[in-house]
């Protein structure tokens, strides 16, 4: 009888050990699937050199499959201390180029100094604030960090945090 009980306890112990090891491997595998791939992490950041831009120039780049409008303001454009990014004493508007109404991409009209959405006539000024039509809020500002004359999109720097507090 003693051998039967010792064999039974060994089988229970062996089964418990295999189940614990299998559970640990499963948890490690699940954690690896939750972590973003290195290529995805790298795609999250985009660096733009602003030093070559001319006053009044609009540059459109892609960040995380979204259009980003970077407008270097000239002397005729109204400055907005709450939304403008200042780099080397020049004011820039940096916004995600998707209308906050239905997600259309507004076109920039330099003669009128507005971004206009063709779908429903929504208009935004050169700071990205909604001034006419159905858009419920201004164009969104992507997270950014300033490194000298470079703008790093996708990383929250002190300038971005200060802008979001206001």
Question: In a few lines, what is going on in this structure?
Answer:
The chain has 166 residues and is of the alpha+beta class. Helix content is 28%, strand content 28%. The protein folds into two domains: 7-36; 43-165, Rieske Iron-sulfur Protein (3-layer Sandwich), CATH 2.102.10.10.
The H-level CATH homologous superfamily of the largest domain, spelled out, is: Rieske [2Fe-2S] iron-sulphur domain
Low-confidence stretches: none
Helix and strand composition category: alpha+beta
Mean pLDDT comes to 89
Rounded to an integer in angstroms, the radius of gyration calculated over CA atoms is 27 Å
- The number of domains: 2
Please state roughly what percent of the residues sit in beta strands, choosing from under 5%, 5-15%, 15-25%, 25-35%, 35-45% or over 45%. 25-35%
The coarse silhouette is elongated
Mind summarizing the main beta sheet?
A: 4 strands, antiparallel
Task: Report the total helices.
Answer: 3
CATH architecture name of the largest domain: 3-layer Sandwich
Helix proportion range: 25-40%
Q: How many strand units?
A: 11
N-to-C CA distance: 78 Å
Major sheet strand order: 2-3-5-4
Main CATH class of the largest domain: Mainly Beta
Keywords: 2Fe-2S, Disulfide bond, Iron, Iron-sulfur, Metal-binding, Molybdenum
Domain Rieske: 92-153
Protein name: Ubiquinol-cytochrome c reductase iron-sulfur subunit
Cofactor: [2Fe-2S] cluster
